[in-house]
Amino acid sequence: MRLLATLAVACACACVTERVDPRGGAAVQRRSARVVEPCVVSGCSGQLCARQALFSTCEWRPEYACFARATCAPQAGGACGWIMTDELRACLDAAAKEAR
């Protein structure tokens, strides 16, 4: 049972790829996504932006690459989400067309 618990914790840590920079209150995720506290980037493919680390299935979709250059930050309603810039919208649109 302890082995199972240890493996679950190790898997959870492996899926969270965001590292906080304590000097500036922001963080840079390994895939170069920009993160504003208290939000974190998580999910196996770095596609989730939320207030806490979340698990996801480990698949890859073309649109996930768009989030590598996006900003994960608190939104107007207080929830965390990706800042929808013209660049992110264009990237997501191109990925959607590629998937068809």
What does this structure look like?
With 100 residues, the chain is α+β, with helices and mostly antiparallel strands. The chain has one domain (2-99). Helices cover 28% and strands 23% of the residues. It is built from 2 helices and 7 strands; from the N terminus they run αβββββββα. The protein has helices at 2-15, 86-99; strands at residues 18-20, 26-29, 34-36, 40-42, 48-50, 71-74, 80-82. It has a 5-stranded mixed beta sheet with strand order 1-2-3-6-7, with no helix packed on it. The radius of gyration is 15 Å and the shape is globular.
The main pleated sheet reads as: 5 strands, mixed
Mean pLDDT: 77
Question: What fraction, in percent, of the residue positions are helical?
Answer: 25-40%
Q: What structural category characterises the helix and strand content?
A: alpha+beta
Read across the widest sheet, the strand sequence of neighbours is 1-2-3-6-7
Q: Overall 3D geometry? A: globular
Cα Rg: 15 Å
Count of strand segments: 7
Order of helices and strands: HEEEEEEEH
**Count of the domains:** 1
Strand content: 15-25%
**Uncertain spans:** 1-30
Measured between the Cα atoms of the first and last residue, the distance is 45 Å
Our count of helices gives 2
Can you tag this structure with a few keywords?
single chain, 100 residues, 5-stranded mixed β-sheet, two-stranded antiparallel ribbon, 2 helices, 7 strands, globular
Outline the secondary-structure elements.
Elements: H1 2-15, E1 18-20, E2 26-29, E3 34-36, E4 40-42, E5 48-50, E6 71-74, E7 80-82, H2 86-99
Parallel strand pairs: 3-6
Antiparallel strand pairs: 1-2, 2-3, 4-5, 6-7
